[in-house]
Amino acid sequence: MRDVPSRVATWLVRRCAAGRVPLHAGQAGLGAEIGATRVSVNRALRGFERRGMIEIRAGEVVVLDPRALSRLAALPAPDQAS
Asked: pTM of the predicted model, to two decimals?
């Protein structure tokens, strides 16, 4: 099983086509989808934010650096996926 930051990065990369990812069910909902606690999800998101990859807003995450998130997720960048 992959670590929580990798799973959060994967979740974000798969949903960031428009650059914004709504968190309809909040961080707890994201955690439920990926099998992690809200605290672990928050820790991963805050780490990404400190590194300039995302910006956390009320009810959404703005992806600033999809390539960096893709590297963490071990996925092709959204603009390179075919």
From this structure: 0.87
Residue 81 has pLDDT above 50, yes or no: no
Other CB atoms closer than 10 Å to residue 76's CB: what's the count? 12
Cβ–Cβ < 8 Å for 73, 10: yes
Whole domain around residue 13: which residue ranges?
Answer: 4-72
HSE-CB for 59 with a 13 A CA cutoff: 1
Is 56 part of a structural domain of the chain?
Answer: yes
Q: Which two tokens stand for residue 81?
A: 């996926």
Q: How far is CA 26 from the centre of its chain?
A: 12
Instruction: Place 82 in a pLDDT band, splitting at 50, 70 and 90.
Output: very low
Does residue 82 sit within a domain? no
